[in-house]
Amino acid sequence: MSKVFFTANSILISLALICIFTAAAIAEEESIVITSQMLTADNKKNVAVFEGTVVAKSDDITINSNKMEVFYDNSEGKITIIHASGNVKVFNEERAIFSQEATYFGQEEKIVFTGEPKAVEGENIITGTEIIYFLKDNRTIVKDSRVVLKKDKE
């Protein structure tokens, strides 16, 4: 039982690491490059909308989606909300999170994955109806969770 707990815990830690790296890129602590088929910027509403094969890359993390809306506060120079929708995939070399939507809330410092979210590391999988990662607390909540752990072949 302790090995199962350890493996589940390590998957949640891995999920947390992906979220931390994503948040670091979002918070502009490192450079991020976003490409898409179309960009529409509305400075009056403080929103930039990327549509069609959206790819956001930082040094460690890549985010793919069909659409990404970036809301910002010009007076503070901060991103307030990022909403990615449609075939969202957040990944690095070893881990990935898949969902239909992902939303970063700057003020609350959290990322919410919805729409059949699934975290994958190797053959281990965590799914739920919603995965919420709280950046400040380094804490994850998986609603209606299902954890599939594969035994290590020793």
Order of helices and strands: HEEEEEEEEEEEE
- The tally of beta strands, per DSSP, is 12
Radius of gyration, CA atoms, in whole angstroms: 16 Å
The major β-sheet equals:
12 strands, antiparallel
Average of the residue pLDDT scores: 80
And the CATH topology? lipopolysaccharide transport protein A fold
State the distance separating the first and last CA atoms.
Answer: 17 Å
| Poorly predicted ranges | 1-21
Under CATH at level 1, the class stands as Mainly Beta
Helical stretch count?
1
The rough form would be described as: globular
Instruction: Tell me the domain tally.
Output: 1
CATH superfamily annotation: Lipopolysaccharide (LPS) transport protein A like domain
List keywords for this structure.
globular; lipopolysaccharide transport protein A fold; disordered N terminus; alpha+beta; twelve-stranded antiparallel β-sheet
Topology readout:
Layout lengths: L1 H25 L6 E3 L2 E5 L4 E11 L4 E12 L4 E14 L3 E11 L4 E5 L3 E4 L2 E4 L2 E5 L4 E5 L2 E3 L6
Antiparallel strand pairs: 1-3, 2-3, 3-4, 4-5, 5-6, 6-7, 6-8, 7-10, 8-9, 9-12, 10-11
Describe the overall structure:
With 154 residues, the chain is α+β, with helices and mostly antiparallel strands. The protein has one domain: lipopolysaccharide transport protein A fold (Sandwich). The chain has one helix at 2-26; strands spanning 33-35, 38-42, 47-57, 62-73, 78-91, 95-105, 110-114, 118-121, 124-127, 130-134, 139-143, 146-148. A hairpin with a 3-residue loop joins strand 5 (78-91) and strand 6. Residues 1-21 have low confidence and may be disordered.
